[in-house]
Amino acid sequence: RCCDPGVVTTGPPPGPGPVLFLGFGVFIMLAIASYNRADPSINTAGANVAGVQNWMGARGASTADLLLQTLGLGGCVFGATLIAWGWALLARRSLSPIWLRFTAMILAALAAAASFARLPSGDWLAQPQMGGSGGMKMLQMSNDLIGLDGGFGLMAGIWGVIAFALACIAFTVGLAELKWVGALIVNIVMA
Q1: pTM of the model
Q2: For residue 151, what pLDDT is reported?
Q3: Coil, helix or strand at residue 93
Q4: What is the largest CA-CA distance in the chain?
Q5: How far apart are CA 147 and CA 132, in angstroms?
Q6: Rounded Cα gap, residues 38 and 46, in angstroms
Q7: Which of 87, 88, 63 is nearest to 76 (CA)?
Q8: Contact call for residues 166 and 108 (beta carbons, < 8 A)
Q9: By CB distance 3.0 to 4.6 Å, which of 41, 51, 53, 57 could disulfide with 65?
Q10: What is the 8-class DSSP label of residue 28?
């Protein structure tokens, strides 16, 4: 029962944890959404800190730059997971076992980066793909390992399925929610 995300706990109010998770998650998502590659950050020189375009300021610019350069859109998994954890704790749902959720979050971010590695970023990112440098490296290595000749699209799709499965574990998605998502996907495909 400890691993069932549907378990509702009783007792005193949850404290500041859920609000902190929600706050950090929203911070990451807004920082990524307002990313500007010209903003000064850890690896982008810029003297005009006052002219930062990122909605979350200089810290948001550095956070978004780090996540997007390495994991591309896979970095959104961190923000989304923290939001899901905050929401679950506010609803008094268990995050147990937290080590499993945390590990799944990291692996889901890596898998998502690989799945986005073939999508062009246009001028938004410094990297040419939406998966960042880490995602492209993972996609290339996995494609070489399996031996698909030019099968980057197929491999990216496989990574997408893996990312979805791991994100469900990280997000504390229960069986009822999975049935709902499955029905939604079937309805979209059949439409």
Answers
A1: 0.85
A2: 80
A3: strand
A4: 57
A5: 22
A6: 8
A7: 63
A8: yes
A9: 41
A10: H
Residue pair 74/132 in contact by the 8 Å Cβ criterion: yes
- The answer to whether the CB of 156 falls within 8 A of the CB of 135 is no
Tokens representing residue 171 in the block: 């997000």
CB atoms within 10 A of CB 55: 15
Which residue stretches of the chain are H helix? 17-33, 57-71, 76-90, 98-115, 132-146, 152-170, 175-190
Q: How does DSSP assign 130-176, residue by residue?
A: TTHHHHHHHHHHHHHHHT-SS-HHHHHHHHHHHHHHHHHHHTT--HH
Q: Which residues contact 11 (CB under 8 A, 6 or more apart)?
A: none
Contacts of 42 (CB under 8 A, 6+ apart): 62, 65, 66
Helix 76-90 to helix 17-33 angle, to the nearest 10 degrees?
150
As a whole number of angstroms, the distance between CA 69 and CA 127 comes to: 7
Which token pair is 146?
């399996």
Structure-token pair, residue 134: 């880490």
CA distance 155 to 113: 12
Q: What confidence tens digit (pLDDT) does each residue in 61-87 have?
A: 999 999 999 999 999 999 999 999 999
Q: How far apart are CA 121 and CA 70, in angstroms?
A: 14
